[in-house]
Amino acid sequence: MVVMDRPSQIIPCGDFLLRRLRGQRDFAQVFRLTEESLDHLRPWMPWVAPHSGKSTRDLLAKAETKWARGEVYTYGVVRDGTFIGMCQSYRGPVPVGWRMGYWLHPAAVGQGTATRATAGLVAEMFALPDVEYLEITHDLANTASAAVPRRLGFTEVRRERAAPPVVPSGSGVEVVWRLDRPTPPAHGAPAP
């Protein structure tokens, strides 16, 4: 396994890829993707309430800065040159633990895309030397988001009261799933 200090900027995922956001050059696609997904996202993502051109520009500027600092890695999920979703990994409260998030355009759901995108990012994150575990957090009522960590072998580790702002369709309970770094095979032993 190659050890890197940052994940790849492009992660192939079969019929789509994850591509690092490219700042303001991605403004039109990210704005349109979010705009077309508002009704789909609003029940679960409190950050969509103030959606605007300014909030999109701010997101893209922060994505550049935080990537450079090694704090957040944000990707567009791209199929045939068009953004169909986004995913990211960001430092959690413990330096060796990272959190992950994902969302898709409503026309892209139900096709396994979120699971495959997250799997691609999981592999990239575990190629980094300082990542010991990954976590995915979602509201208890968001069963679609729960399917992704379950399919990828994450284990539910706790439920906790959601920090404000609580999502409009939410239960107020956050479910936290964890996946630990795979243990490398013993020297000389075949990989499973």
Automatic annotation (TrEMBL):
Matching PROSITE patterns: GNAT
Xref: InterPro entries: Acyl_CoA_acyltransferase (IPR016181), GNAT_dom (IPR000182), Ribosomal_N-acetyltransferase (IPR051908)
Pfam families attached to this UniProt entry: Acetyltransf_3
Domain N-acetyltransferase residue range list: 28-182
Name the record gives this protein: GNAT family N-acetyltransferase
